[in-house]
Amino acid sequence: MKKIKTILILSLAAAMLFMAGCVSSTAQSIKVGEDEIPSLYSIIGEKKITGTETNTENDIKSTTVTYEPGSITEREAVDYMLELIASHGFSIQQDAIEQENGKYYQLTKDSETDGKYIVVSLYVEEEGSTVIKYMVGGVDIL
């Protein structure tokens, strides 16, 4: 009985650790630090998420969301960014950069936390995944 209880507790702990880094494909927002950023779902609609990663390094908190290859068009990515700019106070930090297999975009705005900023980076591969990285940190992330 003690062995079963130990296995159950370890399984529950592993599930909690797994869920801590997960983002639902229908989440209305992405929480990073004290800030909530509208999710792609809340603006464009549901897209299949294939991976998420949450990290804190050098006082920069980040959540990275990777979407299924081909599920997000460049037009949808641009529409998402335009809505963040028009309705949520973001501005263009980096004009579109053509890279070998896709385009890279970056937006920014002030954080809810004094002296910090929110940066949203999007990388849209022509034939692959779309990756959106949400970061909150001091001036070093700009």
Describe this structure in words.
The structure is a single chain. The protein has helices at residues 2-20, 40-43, 74-88; strands spanning 29-32, 35-38, 49-57, 60-67, 91-99, 102-110, 117-125, 130-137. The chain has 142 residues and is an alpha+beta fold. The protein has one domain (2-141): 2-Layer Sandwich (TBP-like). The strands form 2 sheets. The protein has a 6-stranded antiparallel beta sheet, with helices on one face. A hairpin with a 2-residue loop joins strand 5 (91-99) and strand 6.
Helix-residue proportion:
25-40%
Which regions are unreliable across 5 or more consecutive residues at pLDDT < 50?
5-21
CATH-derived architecture: 2-Layer Sandwich
Overall form: globular
Nearest-angstrom radius of gyration?
17 Å
What is the element string, with H for helices and E for strands? HEEHEEHEEEE
- How many DSSP helices? 3
Under CATH at level 1, the class stands as Alpha Beta
Strand content: 35-45%
The domain tally reads: 1
Q: Report the span from N to C terminus.
A: 54 Å
Lateral strand order in the biggest sheet: 3-4-8-7-6-5
The biggest beta sheet is recorded as: 6 strands, antiparallel
Structural class: alpha+beta
Looking at CATH, which topology would you report?
TBP-like
